[in-house]
Amino acid sequence: MRALALLVAALLLAACTDPRSEEQRVRDFLQEVETLAEGRDYMSLVDLIAGDYMDSRGNDKLKAAAILRAFYLRNREVHLYVRPGEISFPSPGFAKVTVHVAMARRPMLESEAARLPVANMHEVQLELLESGDSYEILRSEWQRGNATNLVF
Question: pTM of the prediction?
Fold first, then answer.
């Protein structure tokens, strides 16, 4: 009887969970990734990639880490403007998010929409796996984006 009462209480707590808090956790994760990327914190970024990561080009975690390392060797400065798009939660502990990213070699201010065209635009589909109180990147798909999705 006690076990049944605990199960019912757990289900009620789960049902009362505010879905916005899950969305905020994803947004916080994306902010962390942006901060680490601009700070060139290579090791911390690699730690956010799941061990069984795979991208749309067939790259695993080791190859993705090598690509990231080469990117930092070619680019002394990295400036990002990131705008999350649609966020969904297809199953517990799993999130999908569309991220619009402008990447440039010099700082961009959000209010300077006219400078966005000098940046490389990308649309990234991410699949995130819950890891403790945060997430790790399980899958990604990159494609060319446009400034329309970045300007408010």
Answer: 0.77
